[in-house]
Amino acid sequence: MKKCHTSKEVQDALGSLPESLDETYARILLSITEKDRLKVARALKWIAYSKQPLRVDEVAEAMVIDMKADPSFHFEHRMFNVNLTFDLLGPLIIREKSFVGRDIRYHEKADRNRNDEFYEIRLAHFSVKEYLESVRILGTNTDMFFMSEHEATHEIIETSLL
């Protein structure tokens, strides 16, 4: 809607709203550029199945590790700014500034770098995970985002051991 500049554009936008939650999530996922889809799929797995909330820098690191590539991690693949993670994941996530449950080094870093933002990332709603786990997306143009707990947990463990 923020790109609408006239009444007609607003009316047209309202007339083309998705009819279901599945269609809403499909539109969001399909709006992600081809080059970023694999990174976003990885990040969503980490966010959905991590045993604790993840900071934005942790998600940004997980996004660039590709266990099928050789090498699996390369410094050149890192993002210039970890806050780009928010742009890539868009409305699928929420971010919360939080220091709960973090070790003292994290607090000290936050205190030293007052200009740095420290956020934890969570899925925006339980229905995001429900959609991504749903077999309804298999065979659709969003099936690359399909995830199962078993496969995602395996990928997280394998990546963590890297």
Written account of the structure:
It is a single chain. This protein is mainly α and 162 residues long. Among the domains are: 50-123, no CATH class; 125-162. Helix content is 48%, strand content 7%. The protein has 8 helices and 3 strands. Strands 1-3-2 form a 3-stranded antiparallel β-sheet. Helix 3 crosses helix 4. The longest helix has 16 residues, at 34-49. 19% of the residues are buried.
Put the structure in a nutshell.
The protein is mainly alpha-helical. It is built from eight helices and three strands. Helices cover 48% and strands 7% of the residues.
Q: Compute the gyration radius: what is it? A: 18 Å
Structural class: mainly alpha
Strand content: 5-15%
Helix content: 40-55%
Largest beta-sheet characterization: 3 strands, antiparallel
Mean pLDDT: 79
Order of helices and strands: HHHEHHEHEHH
Poorly predicted parts: 107-116
How far apart lie the N and C ends?
Answer: 43 Å
Kindly report the spatial arrangement of strands forming the biggest sheet: 1-3-2
Task: Write down how many β-strands occur, each being a DSSP E stretch of 2 or more residues.
Answer: 3
Envelope shape: globular
Number of helices: 8
